[in-house]
Amino acid sequence: MAGTGIHTNLLPSSKKKRSGADDFDRNDFIVSKKPQMPTPMWEDPAAALANARHEFGEHGGVNMSIEASATFTVMEPETMRRMFSGELGPDRDFFIYSRHFNPTVLNLGRQMAALEGTEAAYCTASGMSAISSVLLQLCSSGDHVVASRALYGGTHALLTHFLPRACNITTSFVDLGDLDMVKAGIVEGRTKVLYFEAISNPTLAVANIPELCRIAHDKGVMVVVDNTFAPMVLSPARLGADVVVHSISKYISGGADIIAGAVCGPASLVNSMMDLHQGPLMLLGPTMNAKVAFELSERIPHLSMRMKEHCHRALVYATRMKKLGLKVIYPGLEDHPDHALLKFMANKEYGYGGILCVDMETEERANRLMNLLQNCTQFGFMAVSLGYYETLMSCSGSSTSSEMNTEEKALAGISPGLVRMSIGYSGTLEQRWGQLEKALSRMQDSNLLQKN
């Protein structure tokens, strides 16, 4: 049962709709309606989420019901034919099979579209399935991608090894900071996608999204941005990106207990990805479980508060560690080369991201620091991933970027001793700082602490 109708991004609708109503607009199941006035440049994503349609439970519960069915019944035989012909669909509350569409998953898609300020969104079983599905939709055999050198290792492997072998789709990797190199990498008639991360994993370089979009669009190239590191902080679609992808497993989930992804972009793209005959989401089947979608839909409303605390603590720790003489990489620090750029692009009051890096120069020193932080002072956990309420630490070169060879890591700026820290918010800030400071002191006593 739907509560208030789909809202615009800025103004709530007073009209009420119920499940099965005939006045749903086409694509209502995935589209956030266009605003009736120009969208401000710095629209708060939390406000957009608050304006999104709220689903109530089947019997009036304040939380939506979980539609756990794999298949759906019809009352008349003729209805089945009309659904398979496309005459009837989710826009009128007609569902066939949950690999196609599921009401609970579609509700999460509405929330993701509101969060990213896109017309539509579709949620998938993992972040990698979202990325691969988008690239398979936008590129065909013989096509070309231009991508950042600094990418998550799994994405880098997809572009470097899998797509060329399986699909004859090739990629040129470029330094995003060198705009002339980006322009030169685009091959007229072949390049279909410019792909990059809003804030790179793990080097924390910030992409100049407006300028990169201008370069790509001038050459007829689509821009796909992975915003996993910066939900709420950045809104790539509002800065010009065509498609935004997420690993929802990270900040949006927040519990390190769910694997999920999302594709956010134009309704025409999302619908084409669900095409019965050629859509990669439809045919490859990276289907999100409805129970997972329900869990995530309950977490998104407090994402803004969680992100603010992640970012606040990251800035405090980075500032203090910098004063101690450590080689800290964090775009919230004024000496970070992309600080001014991020400050210009970021949504206000969300900070500069919840990830910081400490370059210990060697893997041995990196491992020693992480061992002390986990096993001696209990500052955090040695684990991959990010966005958890506890701090997570990993040596990127030997973990999440291990798919890259030595030369590729060097070009991406990943040193052997780079420690990536996803800063959590459990405990008090000063309690956790004391634990971090104690570990650093032990490193110094052992003459293992490298300072600038």
Explain the overall architecture:
By secondary structure, this protein is an alpha/beta fold. It is about 35% helix and about 10% strand. The protein is built from 15 helices and twelve strands. The protein has a seven-stranded mixed β-sheet with strand order 1-7-6-5-4-2-3, with helices on both faces. A five-stranded mixed β-sheet has the order 8-9-12-11-10.
In short:
The chain has 452 residues and is an alpha/beta fold. The chain is built from 15 helices and 12 strands. The longest helix is centred in the C-terminal third of the chain and has 21 residues, at 303-323.
Helix proportion: 25-40%
CA-CA gap between termini: 59 Å
**Unreliable stretches:** 1-40
Specify the overall morphology.
globular
Radius of gyration: 22 Å
Number of helices: 15
The helix/strand class is: alpha/beta
The count of β-strands is 12
Mean pLDDT: 89
Name the beta content range.
5-15%
Order of helices and strands: HHHEHEHEHEHEEEHHHHEHEHEEHEH
